[in-house]
Specification:
The chain has helices at 7-24, 28-34, 39-47, 66-79, 81-101, 104-115, 231-267, 279-307, 313-338, 349-358, 366-377, and strands at 121-124, 140-143, 147-158, 165-171, 181-187, 193-198, 209-220, 269-270, 273-274. The chain is an alpha+beta fold and 379 residues long. Helix 1 (7-24) packs parallel to helix 4 and helix 9 packs antiparallel against helix 10 (349-358). The longest helix has 37 residues, at 231-267.
Length: 379
């Protein structure tokens, strides 16, 4: 068993850490306050190759491994989870699905600009009546011969207004249930495709989350990914990898909170000494550090399995479940350690606490992860 990172992986982690400190941190509180999408920062992340990290260089990507992806997601998420979720969605849910399952024509037309960071993608599965029950797709894609006629609404879509390319799951044959779902590539600007108002969220407020409406949108047949009825399998396969990204995001939020808590504990004095000397604080920090290290190992193990072509569904579910629960617990404790200062925005930890909550919900709730894990345990 080897627990050492390669020199290349260490360099990638350092590059992400430097970027987070110099580019993301300066305006992160203001972006959160005003729900401002980090467009300039995302563009620079694209130029660094972080929006198509695991895509082959043949299609404009950086050709990195999943372990490097975890390292980058952790470092970015320590500072700005609103920016890191863009990296996660573009890599795990959009680029991965297109590279693995898309046709050569689809890769040339859509994957290359996405992997280069010239465009941003969105993954459109959730609906008003289809969250955890992803089989209940009300959005329909009626086969019209040379095209599909797309109608319906998608909810909670990350990159909703900033994306140019949307992977949309829709029901073509309801009698076949999940086997009647297709995934279609939809472009911004297609007639009948409109973007709803931005959601006013508790956390990751810089990320643009929207509802999308489709009214008789004509989607060419060549924009379907895979065979007829492949959409649900496509969604489940991409979400397996997506969980690694969100697990790493949760890990980053937690480790960022710990770093701030340690720094504050060393500076804050009470009862004639720094609070870092108080056993009550030391025990909190010990629990936080232990949970974070366990979460990190789960994330890296899931990434290692993916890199080595081994089944990683259960491992990614475990990583997301534990890391997201750790993020919530750790950020709450970080606020507690800061006391009254933890309740104000300038100390960052209250934002990390708000950002942590979504990691227990999106790309599969903690409860759904337990279902995935238990099914494997019971096999």
């Amino acid at each position: 068993m080897h627990f050492e990172l390669s020199e290349e992986q260490k360099m990638i982690r350092q590059a992400a850490r430097d970027f987070a400190q110099t580019e993301l941190k300066p305006g992160v509180i203001e972006r959160d306050e005003h729900q401002k999408f980090p467009a300039e920062q995302i563009k620079k992340l694209g130029e660094l190759g972080f929006l198509g990290m695991m895509v082959s260089p043949q299609y404009g990507g950086s050709g990195m491994d999943a372990i490097s992806y975890v390292l980058v997601m952790e470092e970015l998420s320590k500072i700005d989870a609103s920016a890191s979720v863009v990296v996660s969605v573009n890599n795990s849910l959009v680029c991965y699905g297109l590279e693995k399952y898309g046709s050569e024509e689809q890769k040339q037309k859509y994957l290359i600009p996405l992997a280069k960071g010239e465009k941003i993608g969105a993954f459109c599965l959730s609906e008003p009546e289809a969250g955890s029950d992803a089989t209940s797709q009300r959005t329909t894609a009626i086969d019209m011969g040379d095209h599909y006629l797309l109608n319906g609404t998608k909810n909670w879509i990350t990159n909703g207004s900033s994306a140019s390319t949307y992977l949309v799951m829709a029901q073509t044959d309801a009698s076949k249930r999940s086997h009647g779902i297709n995934v279609l590539i939809v472009e911004k600007g297609m007639e009948g495709f409109t973007i709803g108002a931005k959601e006013n969220k508790m956390g990751i407020r810089g990320s643009d989350t929207h509802s999308l409406m489709f009214n008789d949108v004509k989607v060419p047949k060549e924009n379907r990914i895979g065979e007829d009825g492949f959409g649900f399998k496509f969604a489940m396969s991409t979400l397996e990898g997506g969980r690694i990204g969100i697990a790493a995001q949760a890990l980053g939020i937690a480790s960022g909170a710990l770093e701030l808590a340690v720094q504050y504990a060393k500076e804050r004095t009470a009862f004639g000494k720094t609070i870092a000397n108080l056993q009550a604080i030391q025990f909190k920090l010990a629990d936080m550090a232990t949970d974070i290290e366990a979460a990190r190992l789960l994330c890296l193990r899931a990434a290692w399995l993916k890199d080595n072509g081994k089944p990683y569904g259960q491992a990614s579910a475990m990583a997301k479940l534990f890391a997201s629960e750790t993020a919530m617990k750790t950020t709450i404790e970080a606020v507690q350690i800061h006391g009254g200062y933890g309740f104000v925005k300038e100390y960052h930890v209250e934002r990390l606490m708000r950002d942590a909550k979504i990691t227990q919900i999106y790309e599969g709730t903690s409860e759904i992860q337990k279902i995935v894990i238990s099914r494997e345990v019971l096999k």
